[in-house]
Amino acid sequence: MTVTSPSTGGSPQVDGATHAQRPPDGRPGTAERAAPARALIRVRQLALASLIANTAIVATGGAVRLTGSGLGCPTWPRCTDDSLVATAEMGIHGAIEFGNRLLTIVLSAIAVAGLVAAWRLAGRPRRLVRPALLALAGIAAQGVVGGITVWMTLHPLVVGIHFMLSIGVISVAYEFWRRARDMIVAPPVADRSLRPLRPLAWTLAATSFAVLLVGTLVTGSGPHSGDPDAPRNGLDPQNISQIHADLVFLLLGLSVAAWLILRAWGAPAVAVEAAASLVLVELAQGLIGLVQYFTGLPVLLVGAHLVGACLVWIATLAVLDRGGALDDAVGRKAATSGR
Ligand code: HEM
């Protein structure tokens, strides 16, 4: 997949400065430049694969919880004291829980491939190597937190931390992808014009984060603990669900406001589209949330809500990204330091 830049007349841009296709004027031509461009595109693909895989494992982790398989392997890092892997006697719960553990290997392999691809780029750009390394470290940390979750017999606080850490790894994978993208395709505008909207963008992001955080408390108070013997957090499900839903309404209001203001401001189309997408994802996720609440939390809807939560967060990151707020926070400093 080759993305072209409106600002460069469609030519892929490498390192934010050089083009893959140049006029035959003695300087490096298409053939010479194509290799680094391909290498960079490979990095971007691996970063995207990491983003998708880290979202997918939230879904499979949810399947472990929603099938009551949380303690299918009752210990960690071995499955049982006597066996490293799940055995036939442990039944379907053992297979489901152990299968999810194995997925960590797939995630790690994708993260290592991304790191190696970034490392092998000319100049070993730190702005790509760093997020690649951080994503790998996050996955390793998730392996350990997953183990602690089992040791703590699925204590809801640890389960919540496990989920929020995935949100952290997803954020890092997004940033890895964004940086690779911006080294291939120059951002469409240097949108300093959107600076006055930063407080709104960050308030929106903080509210989105709070919705996720409180969502984990709702789950911790509810029936889907992952095992009949797992403790609950003791909060009143109705009250905490109300707080969760109230925050969702605030989030929706801020997102609609961001969309309308960006339109009125004459912001770049990508920024307006990002805000519109966030509103749509929130509406879909809010609907799932309401239906699951009023229908006794059927597992399929709860699973969809879990994936929807990740999508809301990714859409939130896209709003920060397309509005230039992430550049202010991390990207521009790294870019101007040349690494
Ligand atoms: C933007 C919209 C929303 C987002 C991003 C969101 C996010 C979340 C998250 C992250 C969780 C915790 C998942 C887990 O730890 O397994 C959760 C759980 C939950 N949410 Fe939402 N939510 C949204 C809207 C709603 C709405 C409108 C309701 C309606 C009351 C709702 C009801 C619930 C319930 C009942 C749970 C607990 C499910 C369980 O027992 O596993 N959500 N939500």
Automatic annotation (TrEMBL):
Pathway, per UniProt?
A: Porphyrin-containing compound metabolism
Q: How does it sit in the membrane?
A: Multi-pass membrane protein
Q: Where is the composition biased (Polar residues)?
A: 1-11
Report whether Nuclease shows up as a keyword of the record.
no
Coiled-coil ranges (or none): none
Looking at the UniProt entry, the stretches that span the membrane are 46-66, 102-121, 133-151, 157-177, 200-220, 240-262, 274-294, 300-320
Positions of the UniProt region annotated as Disordered:
1-33
Stored InterPro entries: COX15/CtaA_fam, COX15/CtaA_HemeA_synthase
Cell compartment(s), UniProt: Membrane
Write the record's keywords in alphabetical order, separated by commas: Cell membrane, Disulfide bond, Heme biosynthesis, Iron, Membrane, Metal-binding, Oxidoreductase, Transmembrane, Transmembrane helix
A Pfam family annotated for this chain is COX15-CtaA
- What's the protein called, per UniProt? COX15/CtaA family protein
